[in-house]
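User: Before I run my own analysis I want an independent prediction to cross-check against. Here's the chain; please return only the structure tokens and, at the end, one sentence I can use as a sanity check.
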Amino acid sequence: MKYITLFIILFLLWLLLTLNLEGPNLIVGAVAALITMLVFGKHFLRDWYKFFQPRRYFWIIIYLGIFIWECIKANFDVAYRVLSPKMPIKPGIVRVKSTLKTDIAKTFLANSITMTPGTITVDVVDDDFFIHWIYVSSSDPDVYTQKVMGRFEKYIKRIFE
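Assistant: Structure tokens:
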């Protein structure tokens, strides 16, 4: 079942990337997904059953809305800082602790932080994320952890764990 799940994911990814439902494209996509599944299948999807839990798809949709909203807010914040004559920036690297346990969840969180303007994940060591932030607004770890990760972490936990 693990291999069938991986095949479905790979084939759907192929269809999303090509946006073409013609016969030859479907055949090439199926062959590519099959070869990839056979070569790399044993390394992926330890918890394949999670792919078939509908509540995770609900949380993905909620997360996408929140992520888009946070990106829009961060874009305006960065634009304000760039266009302001005083350049109100206070850059720094902060260390925040995550409660996520799985590697895929940590990777997804690190990428979400990096894709949000004004922040970039520099390193992840165990449960600690080192994040460069354009404006470190507080020296209290609880405050900046909530500002940087709080908006994403709880939804990612519901999706991946």
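Sanity check: Helices lie at 2-18, 23-40, 54-83, 103-115, 141-148, 150-160.
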